[in-house]
């Protein structure tokens, strides 16, 4: 049987760059709480914070199977987008996009405020983002995204192959776009800071996986290895792993994707890496590769996916290194200092598993690879929904996850679709 929580083989490279922190103790006894939240990621932290603004005197227990910074929320590429992802960029849908983008932009400002309140130092800057195409399939995606930006009256710059080479030091791409609507952060620092900014009234337990949930006499019981939690209201904010607790099983899959960081590059190489010293580049293909150059002069590559399992360390290292060297041949002598994987809560149509699933049981899952800012927003709105406050129509704004067939048809469908997509868009991989 699959575990009900992520248990990664490889350490998170971002977290390995930070000094060690003392985790909150694991739950070691039975407790009673008004509210329990499973998952201390962007979504879970936002739920806890919002609940406390509604009911400052109620008890809130927040548990996570991992340690803050080491788990999934610290494993991402650190893009905090102020607008929706390219796949969502549909010029015919502008009103919906404007409303969701306005909420996402406001949420990002709140995240910046939370970082400031935490007093922690976080590498975060409004560096913007490139999108670049290495093939005609990528160029068509850029054209669609440009149509969206134009229709939304959002600023952007169009870039030729030589512009890109001059700015990011890679001649791999044919053409691209730069848009300023994105912050780049060190994600392990970021999640540590957001966690640190939680009010003291939230009781946090790290290294505490929820093994099962059960409804008992109109309350909820969460079982963990060394203690159980009884609560009136239970939130699942554990993304793809909600389905391991019996929720969203016909809508969610755990898609693993991988990232690697080089060591800080020697100064002798900086001049070969373009004029921009802190940048991020998102793929034009949904299975394509993300790139970053960080403030401390490392390159990051995030690429390829696996269905419901984490690939072997050697395969992750070899594949990421090959893809990085294809884009930056000048780094041929440099290997990756760290590589790691992370699970993305994926839904077939990109919609969400969001709302009250059963009386007193609320869930927000299905980030589809872009859930740092969106997760924060959706967590906050879920807490509002649970207390009966007015909330916008989340399904209308962000979609509802569609049904997927059961295994083994689901896995077969994924493998066939991804093989076909990867072959057609191979230059973007
Ligand atoms: C390599 C990679 C790169 C990415 N890059 C980006 C990016 O640049 N920008 C972006 O917006 N998104 C990115 N994503 C996606 C992003 O990480 C997620 O969208 C985001 O973390 C979702 O936040 P969340 O709080 O909803 O869920 P998560 O971050 O997945 O947090 C869920 C938490 O629940 C915990 N948990 C799971 N099961 C249990 C259990 N049974 N009991 C207790 N705790 C449990 C986990 O340990 C985790 O801490 C990337 C993902 C990966 C893997």
Automatic annotation (TrEMBL):
Keywords carried by this UniProt record: Oxidoreductase
Protein name, per record: FAD-binding oxidoreductase
Keyword match Oxidoreductase: yes
GO molecular function terms listed in the Swiss-Prot or TrEMBL record: oxidoreductase activity
Cellular component GO terms held in the UniProt record: cytoplasm
One matching Pfam family: DAO
Upper taxonomic lineage: Bacteria, Pseudomonadati, Pseudomonadota, Gammaproteobacteria, OMG group
Span of domain FAD dependent oxidoreductase: 34-385
Signal sequence bounds: none
